[in-house]
Amino acid sequence: GQNIDQPTEMTATEGAIVQINCTYQTSGFNGLFWYQQHAGEAPTFLSYNVLDGLEEKGRFSSFLSRSKGYSYLLLKELQMKDSASYLCAVRDDYKLSFGAGTTVTVRA
Amino acid sequence: GAVVSQHPSRVICKSGTSVKIECRSLDFQATTMFWYRQFPKQSLMLMATSNEGSKATYEQGVEKDKFLINHASLTLSTLTVTSAHPEDSSFYICSVSGLQETQYFGPGTRLLVL
What mean pLDDT do residues B14-27 have? Predict the structure, then answer.
């Protein structure tokens, strides 16, 4: 089975940094994805990690440790528009399994 | 990434009717599409994998006779919710696999069954 855990909610101030952790226990592993989902909208792709290490893409970075079953998404220079749900998803042999999502609220 | 559209974006229907949702891959030939369902404040749950030219693969607990999937071409998959009931009210989202098996999602269809 798949077990993907991430915090339910996080709050941060505009301009700050927030780190969203994700731990997983899955029957197979072929990559870890992070998606952003604004309320009432479909998820949009943020990042993909399949090897250990840090992937940086502008204000967003994602880290993976396969031996620890652990990933994090780092959001820097937070903006109000970053308020959204962030979904951690793990791909096994053929499908994506999603965590419940972390709702990030950015305050002025 | 792949561009995916869905139609309709929102539908309200009476209990007992059937509703068809279309998912189109606009710039990518998708042999495989995925259908998800998302209830309020919950994460996405995979319902089925839609395979072009063959039968869909359904996840455990998803009734294949209630959620009919047709993937007749490389750019179109349809999901029909038959005899819809209020408990089927949800956000239905399709996706296609692109580069590095990244899934790109359609804008979603919000179904409300009265």
Answer: 95
Q: Flag whether pLDDT at A64 surpasses 90.
A: yes
Nearest CA among A15, A101, A34, A104 for reference residue A72: A34
Q: Is the pLDDT of residue A47 over 90?
A: yes
Interface check for B108 against chain A (CB to CB < 8 A): the answer is yes
Find the closest chain A residue to B4 by CA distance: A42
Q: Where are the beta strands (DSSP E) in chain A?
A: 3-5, 9-13, 18-25, 32-37, 44-49, 53-57, 60-65, 70-75, 84-91, 96-98, 102-107
**CB within 8 Å of A68: residues ≥ 6 apart:** A23
Question: Which residue on chain A is closest to B40 by alpha carbon?
Answer: A40
List the helix and strand counts (H, then E) for chain B: 0, 11
A17: its two tokens: 């940094």
**pLDDT at B48 > cutoff 90:** yes
- Confidence class for position A28, pLDDT limits 50, 70, 90: confident
Judged by DSSP in three states, B100 sits in: helix
